[in-house]
């Protein structure tokens, strides 16, 4: 459990570890990048949720993250159903998962900067 917490605090470590392991195994940069993004998203979700909770003195961060992911799944599933008449669950989940990686990465940077700024202001 402690190792998972360390990787959640510093989610760029699992990204680089998985990327280099996959690249060493498959020798495919694109597949390595995708796999690293998919694995890192789990750590980013927990990390951003914890940073949200610390920043806003809340316990709602994880639930908000899950809610946003579920809303995105519903929106993309609805769009697929309107456009193609059927929902491809694998493509839908993969699109939301990769979108979550991008948004959680942005959230991680934003909450980290905001948290550091808030900490420095309290110290003055």
TrEMBL record:
Transmembrane segments: 6-23, 35-54, 60-79, 100-121
Annotated keywords: Membrane, Transmembrane, Transmembrane helix
Top-level taxon of origin: Bacteria
Protein name per the record: DUF3397 domain-containing protein
